[in-house]
Amino acid sequence: MLLHIDQNSFELKKKFTISRGSRNSAEVLTVSIRDREFIGLGECVPYKRYGESLESVSKDILSVPLPVNNQDLQKILKPGAARNALDCALWDLKSKKEGKPVWNLLNLKKPKPTITAYTISLSTPEKMMLEAKSKSNYPILKVKLGGQSDEKCIKAVREGSPNARIIVDANEGWTIESYNYLVPIFKIIGVELIEQPFPSNKDYLLKKLDRQIPICADESCHDLNSLKKLIGLYDFINIKLDKTGGLTEAIKLLKTAKKNGFKIMLGCMVGSSLAMAPALLLSSMSDIVDLDGPLLLKKDRKPSIRYDNFLAFPVTNDLWGS
After folding, report:
1. What are the CB-based long-range contacts (under 8 Å, 24+) for 183-192?
2. Spatial distance between the Cα atoms of 52 and 77, rounded to a whole number of angstroms
3. How deeply is 75 buried, as exposed, middle or buried, from its count of CB atoms within 10 A (0-12, 13-18, 19+)?
4. Which pLDDT score, from 0 to 100, does residue 130 have?
5. What band does 20 get if pLDDT is binned at 50, 70 and 90?
6. Integer Cα distance of 52 and 58 in angstroms
7. Which helix or strand (DSSP H or E) is residue 4 part of?
8. Are 133 and 93 members of one domain?
9. pLDDT of residue 4
10. Domain co-membership, 218 together with 94
């Protein structure tokens, strides 16, 4: 086996802002693993919130002794971006060597076209309303919040898109006071889900708060080991391969979460089609799919997933895993 890492930058269509800051591009690492004439690919997005950088994740990837398989990889690297890129590249490599799609190798359902939510970046109420209006035909809008104008922003989005299902993501940006004030308003507006209202180290706050709208764990849920402490606090979990450390752990987390009564949001970092492709295999088992990363890019990598507005189509064998 030969391992290679490329650093790629994808310019965004517009500035993407959440409660923690803004970005104008998606900075990703592309891993390729060669075994004879076969090459497997994987992509990850190092995330500062989790103590990752392009340099630290590259170092972790290069630390893995080759040859390696998916099962041994789980013991070598902790959950995170580095393990994700390698895990997905190994599944792609296995698919190519055996001539079978990854969904078949993992005994998953054959993928079908799936509806993805579309993310509206945190901005002024006026700009968020215009963005919502431009996507008013999309069935699900995910709205980034966590600022001082959250009430005005969500009302603006609803005005721009009267018929969309709305979920909001505070990215750990709320206090108990803002939660208690905003939730009754959001309930009237028709918000269906609130994602990570409080910092992950303050999950306990959810225990005594009025639950008018279901709550989803994002920063609080990474892998299977993080699930147990969320029982009784959250209704959904957001599964992202860059948090689980790849498809192998994501499947375990999803199945165990469903057995424990959680509903599933299938999410992503802002990355290219190569990052979305493995996650799409889990779409039929998820309640909400949020794999819109490539829709936010000015130019996706080629080959890419076919998106028809809000509809994401199964990957082809020239991209990944089939």
Report:
1. 183/210, 183/212, 183/213, 184/212, 185/151, 185/154, 186/154, 186/213, 187/212, 187/213, 189/154, 189/155, 189/158, 190/158, 190/165, 190/166, 191/154, 191/166, 191/167, 192/165, 192/166, 192/167
2. 14
3. exposed
4. 97
5. confident
6. 10
7. strand 2-18
8. no
9. 98
10. no
Residue 313: pLDDT band (50, 70, 90) is very high
Peptide bond into 79 cis (omega under 30): no
Say if residue 303's pLDDT is above 80: yes
pLDDT tens, 85-131? 999 999 999 999 999 999 999 999 999 999 999 999 999 999 999 99
Residue 260 vs residues 69, 264, 269: alpha-carbon distances, Å: 29, 11, 25
Average pLDDT, the chain: 96
- Specify the pTM: 0.96
For the ranges 19-23, 76-80, 227-231, which has the lowest average pLDDT? 19-23
- Output the CA–CA distances (angstroms, integers) from residue 256 to 249, 260, 268, in the order listed: 11, 6, 20
3-state secondary structure of 183: helix
Q: What is the pLDDT of residue 316?
A: 82
52 DSSP assignment: -
Does residue 136 sit in the same domain as residue 219? yes
- Establish if 207 belongs to a structural domain: yes
Same domain, 125 and 186: yes
Contacts of 246 (CB under 8 A, 6+ apart): 42, 70, 73, 83, 84, 85, 86, 87, 88, 278
Q: Are 92 and 34 in contact (CB under 8 A)?
A: no
Strand 165-169 vs strand 140-144: parallel, antiparallel, or unpaired? parallel
Cα dist from 319 to 93, 174, 275, whole Å: 12, 39, 10
Overall number of domains in the chain? 2
Q: Which residue has the tokens 């792609």?
A: 92
Q: Tokens in use for 27?
A: 């900075």
223 shares a domain with 135: yes
What tokens appear for 43 in the block? 């992509």
Contact at 8 Å (CB) between 90 and 33? yes
